[in-house]
Amino acid sequence: MLHSKSYVKKTRGGKVTKVVREHYLRDDIYCGASICKVCDSSVARLSASASPILILDTNVVLNQIDLLENPAIEDVVLLSIVLEEVKNKNLAVYNRVRALCSNSLRKFFVFSNEHHKDTYVKEMDGESKNDRNDRAIRVATQWYQTHLGDATPVLLLTNDRENKRKAIEEGISAETVETYVKSLVRPDLLDLLVHNGSEDVRMEDVEDLRPSKRKLLYSEHKPMSEITSGLHRGIYHQGKLRVNRYNPFEAYVGSESIGDEIVIYGRTNMNRAFDGDIVAVELLPQDQWHEEKSLSIADEEEEEEEGVHLVPGSADDAPRTTGQPQGSAGETTPVSSRPSGRVVGIIKRNWQSYCGSLEPMPLPAGSGGIAHALFVSKDRRIPKIRIQTRQLENLLDKRIVVAVDSWDRLSRYPSGHYVRTIGEIGDRDTESEVVLIENDINSRPFSSQVLACLPPLPWSVSSQDLTNPIRQDLRHLQVFSVDPPGCKDIDDALHCTALPNGNFEVGVHIADVTNFVHPGTPLDEEASQRGTSVYLVERRIDMLPKPLTEDICSLRADVERLAFSVIWEMTPEAEIISTRYTKSIIRSCAAMSYIEAQAKMDDSRLMDPLTTDLRNMNTLAKIMRSRRINRGALTLASAEVKFQIDTETHDPLDIGMYQIREANQMVEEFMLAANVSVAEKILKHFPFCSLLRRHPTPTREMLQPLLLTAAAIGLNLDVSSSKALADSLDRAVGDDPYFNKLIRILATRCMTQAVYFCSGDLSPPEYHHYGLAAPLYTHFTSPIRRYADVIVHRLLAASLGIYKLPTIFQDRTQLTSIADNLNYRHRNAQMASRSSVELHTLIYFRKRPTDTEARIVKIRSNGFIVFLPKYGIEGPVYLTPRGGDKGGGEWFVDEQHQQIKMMDGSRSYSVLQAVMIHLEVVEPQPNRPKLQLSLL
Question: Which segments constitute the PIN domain (predicted)?
Fold first, then answer.
């Protein structure tokens, strides 16, 4: 059956054309119920039980997704019109719903009501789109009731009073979500419900339990129309809010409109904004601006006290200031230098699910078994969240997940709801799971649909591969790999052969992942979503299933494997004469660790062919590295920590800084060269749809903390270019063996993040990679663990005429969306790795209180941040702890010399100074253990 609709449309050229939209309707779309006698039961997803079939309206799906994900909710029909609305309003929720629908263990069925002749509804004159959608949902529910008859009940779930009223008038069974959940007699499910603010108990009953506390009121958020106008007129400034990890009452908003970061100080000025929210900020009067170094580190116990002095619209609107620096989190020294502001509106929320534990809260009598509790996130940047629960006693010793629902301007805390329990507090597996949830890492097992895309095991190179004209047989070459110890997902290998003319043939061979991961398959979709493998201290979460990562694609020793090779002819001076690219077959002769490769190169007694190749490669790599640095590439440093893990208990046995060897640098140099060569090749063929990687030049403002620190110790850093900065860093040497490394670590922290982008989105000058001093760069060398490299492999294959370019490359918007997801996933993987290091550091020092040397890297008004070179750890040291001045007097910050001094001049500490520190694990707040650093 064909339904058509026509209308007239005016073109850009001024012509009026008639547009006809055809909508095909069918009568053979199945209902999905196994109990149905009419439809094909082989496609049924709904059970044959007596429980009702649930049909949900759009708002139920959008707001109650945590409830829907609970296994107790089954036999759900999702109408296509509802899915489309959810997709348009919240893509994250849409992806979670699609995951439910594709999970063979869950009884969720998608019904195409918009294409069924009995459930499609035409638009009525004067009817809003929302009313039409509600009517379509009711028509589909009524069809299900009639279609299934007495076989099973059908129930429409809606919290929309008008929709429910109309449904009941039309003879449809309809309930609110809460009424239905109560009928299941599962109190734990009631905790999952999202409540409107109007359903909350009165704030004054549960919030300000101590009468002496003043109520905290927030300014009303400006409407979007006013924000847009204010941004356009330069009154407001837009940016992402980032909360200081050492002080949750201090945040920064990077503003392009003023070319600097705006400091937001105090929860009142943050005005209910969360870390990661896109906000509109209004600058405060200049006499209320603050210098970053004058702000303090917040202590754990101070979190309850901050902000109660600040009430918008009163004389106390600005943070309190005094003539001298103070130690408490609510006070600062007024210094007119850094722009300070307050949040006036939220442009885009970044609310997520948060992990932490509960802090019980008293409640007035007659609460009907509902307890109110404050949820304390493990992430100190997140404010406490008020929830209602019927299972308080069972949750007090557990790590749980909570989602935020709302934050009323009269409420001191945001309101949320319980989502699920992770496990016992302090259990290592529980705490590792928390790391994954906090960083939105998908660690679920791969689905059967994804695994079905893999070739059967055992896999080996076939005769068709050997005779394939696109693939060159390179098994005669002496190929080897050099990786971290215990590496199983080996995605790169090398060879270096001396040529008769005195030159060298050097090859980089990368696992040919795209031979097994085809565009548009469930395997490809999953890899695209995951974006990258995630490396934690005790385990690896793969982007691709293990049969691929550790066997079929891994370039292990003594087995034939498929590769994508970049091969150069190089002079002994490491000048590239020619470059070729080919799909290949290789057979690695050795899979070495960095330590083993270094030992071979260092052992003068060894003269075997493999060691000779290693030494030749290392010689070329040193020349290439030197040339790259002369061109302006930065040699930065980061605090990489390495753990020795017990193979049985998975507990850390030892901890120390990761050691970089020449062998590491040799491999890195050739991987960089391969990435640059491939970037040039793909961009030449596909100037508008290549996936590249750029590193934006840091602004002078971003480098200011580094320049301040350098100036305070008499060091003059030239930051006019990456070359000038690199030369300055090389000259920054002192008596302290850690001095240069510390300066490089500080420089690293001033840099922007390197990001993926689509070449068509930017102009060629913006492609530049600042850190590598390279005009072009991409990622090609790690397709087993990075989806970006999979995309680049497809581009390279298409540029060589091996395969056609997939159709997705014609959709710039989708390519940009993929690049954005890759950047998000890459950053989350880095954050998860760091959090895993922090967790295992806590576990290691829990029973090992230690004294060690540290270096001061940042001065604050009540202490300083130190770096511990031996362990790669960084943390705050307080000079004015809460509960009395244990430091013995008043302190003040000397901004110019980057010092914090006692008022009587008896003691002072300056940036980069060495101090002795005592480390021990303490628990100042229940269930929030932390590594405490104390000055000896």
Answer: 52-165
One-letter amino acid of 830 = Q
Q: What is the pLDDT of residues 435-487, one digit of tens each?
A: 999 888 999 899 888 999 999 989 999 999 999 999 999 999 999 999 988 88
Do 538 and 431 belong to one domain? Answer: no
Is 271 found in the same domain as 256? yes
pTM for the predicted model, two decimal places: 0.82
The verdict on 65 and 201 lying in the same domain is no
Which residue segment(s) compose the domain that 280 sits in? 224-348
Q: Which helix (H) or strand (E) holds 933?
A: strand 930-935
The CATH number assigned to the domain holding 359 equals 2.40.50.700
118's CB contacts (< 8 A; 6+ apart) are 27, 143
Could you tell me the CATH number of the domain that includes residue 37? 3.40.50.1010
Does residue 860 form part of some domain? yes
3-state secondary structure of 25: coil
Pinpoint the alpha helices (H) of 686-721: 700-712
One domain for residues 513 and 528? yes
Radius of gyration of the chain (CA): 31
Residue pLDDT, tens place only, 744-779: 888 887 888 899 999 999 999 999 999 899 999 999
Helix (H, G, I), strand (E, B) or coil at 89: helix
- The Cα-based distances of 835 to 428, 432, 537, 841 in angstroms read 13, 9, 9, 10
Tokens at 122, concatenated: 């035409």
Q: Is residue 733 part of a domain?
A: no
Contact (CB, 8 A) for 238 and 254: no
Return the closest-CA partner of residue 97 out of 124, 77, 72, 119: 77
Q: What is the dihedral of CA 433, 825, 778, 546, to 10 degrees?
A: 40
807 and 853 share one domain: no
In this prediction, what percent of the chain has a pLDDT beyond 70?
A: 85
Separation between Cα atoms, residue 102 and residue 927, nearest integer Å: 37
Cα 169 from Cα 156, distance rounded (Å): 13
Q: Does residue 393 fall inside a structural domain?
A: yes
Based on the domain organization, do 322 and 423 belong to the same domain?
Answer: no
Instruction: Write down the H helix ranges in 52-90.
Output: 58-63, 65-68, 80-89
Total structural domains within the chain: 5
Token pair of 614 as six digits = 């290693």
Closest CA to 176 of 82, 71, 64, 72: 64
Alpha carbons 769 and 50: distance in angstroms, whole number: 62
Instruction: Judge contact between 496 and 620, C-beta under 8 A.
Output: yes
What element of type H or E holds 833? helix 812-845
CATH of the domain at 285: 2.40.50.690
Residues in the chain: 936
Looking at residue 359, its amino acid is: E
Question: How is 217-268 classified by DSSP, letter by letter?
Answer: --PPPPPHHHHHHHHHHTSEEEEEEEEETTEEEEEEEEETTTTEEEEEESHH
With contact defined as beta carbons under 8 Å apart, do 537 and 645 qualify? Answer: yes
Two structure tokens written together for 654: 């030892």
Q: Are 265 and 332 in contact (CB under 8 A)?
A: yes
